[in-house]
Amino acid sequence: MKTKLKKPLSPAAKNSAICYGLVIVFYLVMQVLVYTDHISSSLNGQLIPICVYIVMAVSLNLTVGILGELSLGHAGFMSVGAFSGAVAAYCLQDVIAFSPLRLFLAMIVGGIFAAVAGVIVGVPVLRLKGDYLAIVTLAFGEIIRNLVTIMYLGKDENGLHFSMLEQNFELAEGGKMIINGPMGLSGNSRISTFTMGFILILITLFVVLNLINSRAGRAIMAVRDNRIAAESVGISTTGYKLMAFVISAALAGMAGTLYSMNSSTLVAAKFDFNTSILVLVFVVLGGLGNIWGSIIAAALLTVLPEMLRAVDDYRMLLYAILLIAMMLFNNSKFKQRLIEKRGLRQQAKLEKAQEGGR
Amino acid sequence: MNFLFNLINGISLGSVYAIIALGYTMVYGIAKMLNFAHGDVIMVGAYVSFCATSYLGVSPFLSVGMAIVICAVLGVAIERLAYKPLRSASSLAVLITAIGVSYFLQNAALLIWGSNPKNFSSIVGNASIKLFGGQLSIPVITIVTVVTCIVVMAALTIFTSKSKLGTAMRAVSEDKGAAQLMGINVNTTISLTFAIGSGLAAVAGVLLCSAYPVMTPTLGAMPGIKAFTAAVFGGIGSIPGAMIGGILLGIIENFSKAYIDTQLSDAIVFLVLIVVLLIKPDGLMGKKQSEKV
């Protein structure tokens, strides 16, 4: 009898399949709900933010989980992408009428600007270690927020006008201020759609999962697990660190553009330390280095506050407790014992299977 | 005259940073962790003092004492519950836990005291000293802050270098294992460090809110981060370094507020941190540390 041998999926492929599957199912279910009008208006309004935060969480997971460096300034890159993308979208308004294409180009511009910011931040920051690195990313996040707050940018028939600290240019007739200092963006055309958010998630997953399962990804994880050992086998630690960091920043920038084009006004203060921490909470709760975990955590924790209006006051407190409990559990003897037990059971299963195969 | 005024204000603000930075430096030196929640202990100290004076009618100075005791207990509790189980864990796990504790304190304060800003009344009143025929007026709190900072620093230096407990502290920060073999109780020493650091944070909180009287549950976050900057600036683990770093940082912040732009002052302070870390990662007075494989 000929039996067709089914090739078992490698763990990496299984992980990727779970990620894509989750996102596609989520998208289809939501689309069905939207078209059959079974969705509450509050959840409908949350669809794009969910996409934004999924992308933010997956990209931060690349830095924190895969690269193993704590970044506390992820919202800074989101901010760069949000504002540069919005400017790009405004400039393209008359050139490209088809809004999804315009949004896509704006996202690419946002991603590029955020990547540039990622290089500027990453080159000095990644030379540092541990706590210092974390605090410097935090510092950079705050610096970016401060700089955007004092930025003035307007467009009229003569082109773009730009100044820092105070507005020292006059716009010609018919011109418009795009970024207005502390008041931020105003009069955005809201062109973000759920489908574009879905596409952005797919792009993010494609980039991140392929990176993880590539030679570069393995090098990045080697740097995380033992920098000195990785260096001694000839891996360029700085290069790979920078690579992961910049990709993570670029994806955050694209998410930022999606976010900014979802509302008509936006201030730089939105992208503060708290937003960075919120995304970090998603990553930690989903599991460091676990991409589908990030997806679920980001989606659930974005929707949950809407559903748990009653305990809204306690929400952040709960997050904090969860964060601490998660860390304590991860490093507890209890978990170690659980893993040992599971390992023993799997080993027993394996032995049984081998005996059966003989 | 304006310059002198800004300088004095800068030194005063810097003194507060220095006191907070002392707590950071001591904890970092001994537990090798960045206690992110330190800034929020400042906030708790300020709120405790505020409640003691306005609800219990305690005299301002007694309220400071209460704040110190409560914060010290809080600091020890945080260490025991959240940080101690993670002593052998990766620094990433410890740092995330510390951020969690910081968030916990902020949100607990938000639930207890509400988000409305409260008005802190200065512990020494609003009197000020006039100099140069009234051209320069220095608030009393400014002088109190600077004097407190100097006293605290002197006391800590003497404590760590002369007393038995202080020596134990230095020993633990140098080598935990060896210290234990010498009969030092490492757990008690670490708890003591947290208690001292958090007590100092309470003092800093009261001084900070006396100078800038608007209280919110997040008031400690920014000064906390800036004080860490100061601690790094001066060289982490060094007590005089924390003081010099704090005062320099306060002066830099106040001058950039006065002469460049109010909104940019935070950015400039953080830029200082980045530049220091890149040029001289050990800080102004820190010890050089080499990496062992």
Topology:
The complex is a heterodimer of chains A (358) and B (293).
Chain A: H1 11-35, H2 41-66, H3 74-91, H4 99-125, H5 130-149, E1 151-156, E2 159-164, E3 176-180, H6 194-212, H7 215-225, H8 227-232, H9 237-260, H10 273-286, H11 291-307, H12 312-330, H13 333-357
Antiparallel strand pairs in A: 1-2, 1-3
Chain B: H1 2-31, H2 38-54, H3 60-83, H4 91-113, E1 118-119, E2 128-131, E3 136-139, H5 140-162, H6 164-174, H7 176-181, H8 186-211, E4 214-215, H9 221-234, H10 239-259, H11 265-279
Antiparallel strand pairs in B: 1-4, 2-3
What would your notes on this structure say?
The complex is a heterodimer of chains A (358) and B (293). Chain A is 70% helix and 5% strand. By secondary structure, chain A is mostly helical. Chain A folds into two domains: 11-307, ABC transporter involved in vitamin B12 uptake, BtuC; 310-358. A three-stranded antiparallel β-sheet of chain A has the order 2-1-3. In chain A, a hairpin with a 2-residue loop joins strand 1 and strand 2 (159-164). In chain A, helix 3 runs antiparallel to helix 4 (99-125) and helix 3 crosses helix 9. The longest helix of chain A is centred in the N-terminal third of the chain and has 27 residues, at 99-125. The two termini of chain A are 17 Å apart. The mean pLDDT of chain A is 83. With 293 residues, chain B is mainly alpha-helical. Chain B has one domain. Chain B has helices at 2-31, 38-54, 60-83, 91-113, 140-162, 164-174, 176-181, 186-211, 221-234, 239-259, 265-279, and strands at residues 118-119, 128-131, 136-139, 214-215. A two-stranded antiparallel ribbon of chain B has the order 1-4. A two-stranded antiparallel sheet of chain B has the order 2-3. The N and C termini of chain B lie far apart (55 Å). At the A-B interface, helix 5, helix 10 and helix 12 of A face helix 4, helix 9 and helix 11 of B.
